[in-house]
Amino acid sequence: MWPFNRKGPSGFSSSSTAEEVTAGIDATGLTAIVTGASSGIGSETARVLALRGAHVVMGVRNLTAAKQVQQSILKDNPSAKLDAMELDLSSMESVKKFASQYKSSGRPLNILINNAGIMACPFTLSKDNIELQFATNHIGHFLLTNLLLDTMKKTSRQSKREGRIVNVSSEAHRLTYSEGIRFDKINDESSYHSWRAYGQSKLANILHANQLTTLLKEDGADITANSLHPGTIATNLFRHMGVANGIVNAIGRLVLKNVQQGAATTCYVALHPQVKGVSGKYFSDSNLSKTTSHGTDDDLAKKLWDFSMNLIKLRFQIPEIDRKCGYSAAKALLDSPLIPPPKRSPKACLWPHCHRATSGIGVETTRVLALRGVHVVMGVRNLAAAKDVKESILKEIPSAKVDAMELDLSSLESVKKFASEFNSSALPLNILM
Ligand SMILES: NC(=O)c1ccc[n+]([C@@H]2O[C@H](COP(=O)([O-])OP(=O)(O)OC[C@H]3O[C@@H](n4cnc5c(N)ncnc54)[C@H](OP(=O)(O)O)[C@@H]3O)[C@@H](O)[C@H]2O)c1
């Protein structure tokens, strides 16, 4: 249980759960999209919105995981209306496909919850050649929102009910680079800092909601856009943090928010009548909260909007590009460096470390795991022999991901060195053999 549970002006506190902040609210007739609903805060948000009667569409990259979430929600709430649709926010093509399928389904859209996210991963480029955290956490949601805005406007007009866009940001937006958003250095690997880049993408979530507010007001649309910090919750989000992930999982579950509390602010901002007409605000613990000077910088919000818009237009070769606003930075980002494939897709690779992989069972284990798509790190005494093994595997499976690192299990010093090098590589580890 979260210890600091003093109630704020809304009547809720950091210990309020998503069910508590939506008690008595009837969301029947509303349709909501929740991105990243296959795990953590997103799955609890989907469960509680469905519990209140909303039709929830889960936008997920892992349909199998979403199916499991769906089944477990339906077990407790057989009348829940839930669908899952494939959506990879790190790929503009996938976002476009999702939006087009959603629109052609003819469904209305009252609530859009931009929740999916990745945190502090090693430097990686997305399929569109954009740093992965910025691409997933901001650009994917920016494009998704833009593509669904007409549907939301139409829904709010026809249903005469306010539409709501909810961006799940983080207090980590305070950790961003000193200039807020580094428009000309988004893809600069040499000065990349995994936490600052996460902070930058989360600041972008806030600025996106702020600028949307300005534009929706100008447009006279009955749609609000807000951002929020959900609290600190031990979820899969910490998967890139090595030892810290272990600590968060072991101790965090006792002292941090649980996932029911973690989804509260999202559900509050999405459904609560107290939030009616409130737009361009930042929430935390189901109450209004304060952001930084960057988070309230209207010029920065406008600059980010123009930059993101140009990125999208350039990517899809849409002719009406605004060459004054953010054009050169957006163009430079897409054009260079010319590294077409993503270097690592952290969630897509598994990193088992197979010791003694240079002979016998170890070699065959490595070969078969690599054949099945696993990224294998061979922990070996003899790097030359491991090189031969790697070459023979690559001959048979050219796409195999196999690496070798020196490890002598008879020497504690060597084991320590191996583990320390592995940890500092910040690679995830799913299987240890
Ligand atoms: N947990 C915290 O302490 C905390 C604190 C502040 C803010 N937040 C924010 O809360 C949000 C939810 O995080 P969480 O804690 O619930 O983490 P989580 O359990 O890891 O959930 C993140 C969700 O995002 C999805 N996702 C990641 N990359 C995606 C992509 N390219 N396309 C589509 N979906 C993608 C994940 O899908 P897969 O299952 O396929 O990976 C997962 O469903 C994030 O925006 C995060 O920044 C969390």
What does the largest sheet look like? 8 strands, mixed
- Ligand names: NADP nicotinamide-adenine-dinucleotide phosphate
What order do the helices and strands follow? HEHEHEHEHEHEHHHEEHHEHEHEH
Query: Would you give the CATH topology of the largest domain?
Result: Rossmann fold
- CA radius of gyration is 23 Å
**How many β-strand stretches?**
11
Into which percentage range does the β-strand content fall? 5-15%
Walk me through this protein's architecture.
This protein is α/β, with parallel strands linked by helices and 433 residues long. It folds into 2 domains: 18-314, Rossmann fold (3-Layer(aba) Sandwich); 353-424, NAD(P)-binding Rossmann-like Domain (Rossmann fold), CATH 3.40.50.720. It is built from 14 helices and 11 strands. The chain has helices at residues 18-21, 40-51, 63-76, 92-104, 132-159, 194-219, 243-255, 259-262, 264-271, 298-315, 327-335, 360-371, 383-396, 412-424, and strands at residues 31-35, 55-60, 81-86, 111-114, 163-168, 223-229, 282-284, 287-289, 353-355, 376-380, 402-406. The protein has an 8-stranded mixed beta sheet, sandwiched between helices. Strand 2, helix 3 (63-76) and strand 3 form a beta-alpha-beta unit. Helix 4 (92-104) packs parallel to helix 5 (132-159), helix 6 (194-219) packs across helix 10 and helix 10 (298-315) packs across helix 11. The model is unreliable at 338-356 (pLDDT under 50). Bound molecules: NADP nicotinamide-adenine-dinucleotide phosphate (NAP). NADP nicotinamide-adenine-dinucleotide phosphate (NAP) binds at residues 36, 38-42, 60-62, 65, 87-90, 115-119, 136, 168, 170, 229-230, 232-233, 235-237, 347. It comes from Arachis hypogaea (Peanut). This is Short-chain dehydrogenase TIC 32.
